[in-house]
Amino acid sequence: MKPSVLLVDDEPNIVLSLEFLMKQAGYDVRIARDGDGALNAVRERAPDIILLDVMTPGLDGYEVCQTIRANPAWNDVRIVMLTAKSREVEREKGLALGADDYITKPFSTRELVDRVKRMLADRRA
Amino acid sequence: MPERVTGLTNAPAGRKQLTPARLIAIAFALAALIGVILFALVFSLRGDLGTLPQRAYSGAIIAVAAAVALGWLVVHQLVLRPLAHLGAQVRLIAEAKSDAPLDLRTYRALGPLPDAITQLAAEFMAARREVQQSVTAATHRVEEQKGRLEAILRDLSEGVMVCNLDHQVLLYNQVALSLLHVAGELGLGRSLFQLVTREPVTHALERLHQRPAAAGATEESTIAVVCATVDSRTLLSGRMSLVLDAEQQPTGYVLTFTDATRSIAELSQRDVLLRNATEGLRQPIANLRAAAETISSFPEITPAERRAFEEVILREGNVLSERLEALDRDYRSLSAGYWPMADIHSLDLFSCVVRSLGEAGGPQVTMVGLPLWLHGDSHSLALALERVLRNLAEATGVSAFDIEALLGDKLIYIEIAWDGVPISSAALDAWRDEELPGALGRATLRDILNRHGSEMWSRAKRPGRALLRLPVPAPTRIQFVPPSRPSMPPRPEFYDFDLLQLGTRPPLAARTLRSLSYVVFDTETTGLRPSQGDEIIAIGAVRIVNGRILTGETFSRLVNPKRPVPAESVQFHGITDAVVADAPPIEVVLPQFKAFAADSALVAHNAAFDLKFLKLKEELCGVRFDNVPLDTLLISAFLFPEFTDHSLDALADRLRIEISGRHTALGDAMVTAAVFVRLLELLEGRNITTLSALMDASNMMLGIRAGQAHF
């Protein structure tokens, strides 16, 4: 079965690229535009990995992350936070609230794909 | 004074009063008598000399001459000499060389004159004393005011200069000297313009002069000045105001100033940054747009042409990314710098918050853990923490919180912990934009967090317990200063079974170690032999409740040992005879310590040593230390049988506890407490969770070590 990726971002231009890249890498891709949508998508079917923007409308990314981490059933879900905030303390906050990785925008698309691949490989191992 | 004068005039009243007139009359009568006798003698001896009238004539002349001589003698002795003497006395009084009253008996012949002079002198002296007293008082007041002014000038962080209208320096403080790069003394009367640039100062002075004097009350009486030192190394920013005399006429001016070099440099860096952020981005964006629009508008271009445009898009995208990172870096290096920050001790900061919440009926906050240095603006941090704690109490319904400073790799973490669940990040976010009353510049929580490059988040600490973390910058100073005094030689280990073993199981025996309350203490003593006259000179202690060191609940007292403190012990604890001279004796301090310890278990490193000192004073002080005794040295020996060094330093090092402030009783008690809390965790790992289990382990070690000591 193809690994599944959930993209959570309200910026269509970046979603366009991310969706394309993830599909190219051979993953099953779903998209949510805000925090509530993300949680609904996870409840429907837990993905292997979530690319989660911090500044989503409604529930923010931290909140989504905390909610997912509060449910032991979703322990296996890997969360990569994408954000325009670049300070060290924000990265630390993201990791403290349960993210597995934290990537600052703008990022190199190749590096993002590499990290997702590595994370999924680690998870399967 | 008048009484004294009256007393003097009355002094000779017991005898018959001899007035000068009477004295002179007696003197003349005596002289006449002697003249007659002399005349009779001469007449009878020289009966053959001349006729009777002739004899009578010459005899009368001799008699008169003798009488005059005698009279003069008497007048000289009784009147002229005392007068001269009196004159000298009066001069002495006038010249303020004598305060002694006149001896009236010396001047009997002078009638009421000495009395009058005595009275005059007394009144004169009283008046002079009054003048002197008021001069002394006035001088004292002036000195006091001068002292106060000097203190103000010394403590001001601004440089202060007072100049006259000719710009000569009349007064200055030390800060002014260092800001102006003047080494040593600045000669008074030197021109200000040998130190700072002329034009801004004269311009400001002109503006001040032009202000109508009447408007002084309503208008600001000072104006801003920015000038530079003559060597143009330093930019000074400050304010100037006029010094006015009684007629409201300016006689000079006051200049207060600070070093603005850095803030002005930062402002201009900010300008450069903004310019780069706007202008610097134009070129790559123009390139990017041109390439993208071309590809989009001309789908028919050849693959080779298309490839060239795509290269441009890729390259310019990277350029934009790099430029952004550079801007971001520069911005962060600036943003931390502009707000005035200083190193703060976490205990000071937390105490402010706890006190302020306590006074205003806020939640109960307990300071725990070992205190640390951090860097920030104390006032705004205190306001922020207070607000966070209030909001937490409101949001969670919890009324008791712990607050602690934790050491991170690069930052210090302020951690607030409570029983319950974490706060959602959305809720935390909503607090950020609340304005904090009392904060400078109508700051919000967000502003204060930004100033400190901080964020905050909440998560579970362990099941049932939640935390909120707020990182703040690390201090500029070194966090832990190694002890400057030499390390203490090991105290003798005591194996006194009476001291460490309890005959009967205490009522607390079944309680879990975590649930007990402990008082961890340490003593400083004059020496190592309690039974041979060595005495306690300091006791320090801290409480542990529920496995938390209560930083706010400490005991720290000096004790007067009523004997000299040996010099060889001073090098270890730094406590000299002078330090303990005014301290209360052990009879006062030990009951206070017992009250602090109450019935908590008493913990110390090599506890038997400290306990021995306490026990020896029980009778004298009327207290009994029947608390459960625990010894971190014995626990260490139990947990780390493979080590031989169980000294407090070695143990702290082994448990990775940073040490500062050792070799004070309280400092050592704090370190022992931190060691003890770690040891409790390790004991739990060994399944020793109750007091009775720990005491069994301790007693076993006691037996083993006592046995070893025998051989």
The number of helical elements of chain B comes to: 22
Strand order of the largest sheet of chain B: 2-1-5-4-3
Parts with pLDDT < 50 across at least 5 consecutive residues of chain A: none
- Would you tell me the overall average pLDDT of chain B? 81
Distance between the termini of chain B: 89 Å
Which word captures the global form of chain B?
flat
Biggest sheet strand line-up of chain A: 2-1-3-4-5
Broad structural category of chain A: alpha/beta
Tally of DSSP helical segments of chain A? 5
Task: Write down the oligomeric state.
Answer: heterodimer
Biggest interface in this structure?
A-B, 16 and 21 residues
Q: How many whole angstroms does the radius of gyration of chain A measure?
A: 13 Å
Strand count, sense and barrel status of the largest sheet of chain B are: 5 strands, antiparallel
Fraction of residues of chain B in helices? 40-55%
Radius of gyration of chain B: 46 Å
How much beta of chain B, percentage-wise?
15-25%
How many β-strand stretches of chain A? 5
Question: What features would you describe in this structure?
Answer:
The complex is a heterodimer of chains A (about 120) and B (about 700). With about 120 residues, chain A is α/β, with parallel strands linked by helices. Chain A is built from five helices and five strands, in the order βαβαβαβαβα. Chain A has helices at about 10-25, 35-45, 60-70, 90-95, 110-125; strands at about 5-10, 30, 50-55, 80-85, 100-105. In chain A, helix 2 runs parallel beside helix 3. The mean pLDDT of chain A is about 90. Chain B has about 700 residues and is an alpha+beta fold. Chain B is built from 22 helices and 17 strands. In chain B, the strands form four sheets. In chain B, strands 2-1-5-4-3 form a five-stranded antiparallel beta sheet. In chain B, strand 1 (about 160-165) and strand 2 form a beta hairpin. The chains are: A alpha/beta (about 120), B alpha+beta (about 700). The interface of A and B includes residues 59, 60, 63, 93 and 97 of A.
